[in-house]
Amino acid sequence: xxxxxxxIFSFRYTSAVKIFCDVDNIFRLISSFPLKKLTFLVFTxxxxxxxxxxxxxxxxxESIFPADGLRVFSQNITTLTSxxxxxxxxxxxxxxxxxxxxxxxxxxxxxxxxxxxxxxxxFKNGTHSLLSKRQLVNNRTDFINEIHSLxxxxxFIQHLNLExxxxxxDTHVAGFSLFLGDLVSINLNHCSRLTxxxxxxxxxxxxxLSEIKMQNTAIGTExxxxxxxxxxxxxxxxxxxxxxxxENIIRLASFFPNLQLLxxxxxxxxxxxxxxxxxxCDKIKHLN
Length: 288
What we know:
By secondary structure, the protein is an alpha/beta fold. The protein has helices at 15-20, 23-30, 67-76, 94-101, 140-153, 170-177, 196-205, 246-255, 271-280; strands at 37-40, 56-59, 82-87, 107-112, 159-161, 185-187, 211-213, 235-237, 261-263, 286-287. It has 2 domains: 36-151; 158-288, Alpha-Beta Horseshoe (Leucine-rich repeat, LRR (right-handed beta-alpha superhelix)). It comes from Medicago truncatula (Barrel medic).
């Protein structure tokens, strides 16, 4: 069958479609397009899956982690480097399963819509009754342990998003960073317990790290003694860190001489520090 170029492919598998198209026919249709990214609302890991070179998988709308589906999927697809999964509940060892199934993973986004982790989210009706035999990750310590197990077994991660993990602290980040030698970017926005110490743990242990996002954290509440320079960091997002002072900004600029982007959105009374940034970081191209 002839192949065609396709940037975005959309297909809705409705009850009407089921009457006229079996799974094999659908697979034959979509396999005509050299897709590298797919999004599923319900995922079972169909063993006849035709995309042997798939790079990115997005799972959205799952109540629980699709462990069985991912096991089947990983037996047929070995090229996956990016996984995004939005779920309501996480069982113990689910994240470790990701490392076992996809050892080459470079980008990981896990969104847990659970009141334990996000206080504004409610349980969906009827979902709780489905949770029975397996042990849930139902507290913050369990979640941190799961992340630790995942990162210690999946050493190729380049892009990590832990945004809004509000109970994450500097000690956690220091531990994680030891496993992230290939890390290029990290998003820790709205992790309100993190301080300057987390920044230095990351740049010390992640020699390829070029971007840190730490908006709305506790940077500025305390300072860390440091005498080293970290030329790898190019982008630093520190917006809405209301404890930041001119002194903090000047210190940080002296440690990161190759900064090209510095975001200080919504931070007041730091004009002197901004002037010093331009003097110390002559490669600055974007300053907010």
